[in-house]
Amino acid sequence: MDIIYQRGEATAAVIQAALPDPPGNSAVRALLSLLKQKELVRHRKEGRTYVYSPVVSRERARRTVLGRVVKTFFGNSVENVVAALIDMSSQNISEEELVRLEKMIQLRRKEGRAK
Questions:
Q1: Backbone dihedral region for residue 57 (phi beyond 0: left; psi -120 to 50: alpha; all else: beta)
Q2: Contact (Cβ atoms closer than 8 angstroms) between residue 17 and residue 10
């Protein structure tokens, strides 16, 4: 999906060529077929070639996928997700990122009180 988002559209061959350790052609086509079934991409035909483009915005796809990961691997717990992310990147979190995260939490608290 990242390659399709970066380029706006791409063929299976272009996607395969852009991958660092590319799988076989049939694996790329199988994945594109799955993405089409999930209505994340559409295709149009140019001669004998399918050209794939995104159906949903990158942000919407990101939220959908993240929601599935949170539900499947973290028991739908935001706390568990944040704890895992902090643990994974504990040496890489800058003071500025921590401040931004604190502001997001404060904003969410205020929004929660307003409801």
A1: beta
A2: no
List the domain range (segments joined by +) for residue 84. Answer: 58-114
Q: Are residues 46 and 20 in the same domain?
A: yes
User: For each successive 10 residues of the chain (115 residues), what is the average pLDDT?
Assistant: 96 96 94 93 96 95 91 94 84 86 92 72
How many Å apart are CA 107 and CA 8, to the nearest integer?
A: 34
Which of 10, 29, 54 corresponds to the end of one domain? 54
Q: What φ, ψ does residue 94 adopt, rounded to 5°? A: -85, 165
CA–CA distance, 19 with 14 (Å, rounded to integer): 9
